[in-house]
Write a structure and sequence with these properties.
149 residues; alpha+beta; Nuclear Transport Factor 2, Chain: A; seven-stranded mixed beta sheet
Length: 149
């Protein structure tokens, strides 16, 4: 059950960013939770601070779709029982599209991919993120196809 709850937490993380639901994003973190987006050109800080940065940064892209896959869990075991912390490694692919009309309105303007490293903590209200570090591995801006002759 803990593994399913943690998996749901990671899914909720992606959905809150994609939906721009910054109150829900903040609620996924423990009170002292932090996020580190420096490898993607961002900031590191408390969840509130990072939510503000994300709102301004990804707000330029009305279409966002974080796809999180290849989740690897390491659950803490204490004296043979499940403990109160876990580590989750998960790969991501994130296509985004800016506003405005283009000949091909369905193609993303920007794509990036990498790996998240989540540290999660069991709290009185369920599992919460104590830290997430983004390890961006690649990015590709949209490039229009060459004009046909």
């Amino acid at each position: 059950m803990d593994r399913l709850a943690i998996d749901a937490l990671i899914t909720d993380y992606a959905i809150t960013v994609d939906d721009g639901d910054w109150a829900a994003y903040r609620s996924l973190f423990s009170p002292d939770g932090r996020a580190d987006y420096r490898s993607a050109g961002g900031v590191e800080g408390a969840a509130d601070e990072v939510a503000e940065w994300l709102a301004g940064t990804v707000g330029r892209f009305p279409m966002r779709q974080h796809l999180i896959a290849n989740r690897r869990f390491h659950l803490e075991i204490v004296d043979g029982d499940l403990g109160d912390t876990a580590q989750v490694q998960a790969d991501y692919l994130n296509p985004m599209r800016m506003g405005g009309a283009r000949e091909d309105d369905s193609a993303p303007d920007f794509e990036c991919g990498g790996r998240y490293a989540f540290s999660v903590l069991r709290t009185g209200i369920g599992w919460r993120i104590s830290r997430v570090v983004v390890h961006e591995k690649w990015r590709r801006p949209y490039q229009a196809a060459p004009a046909a002759d």
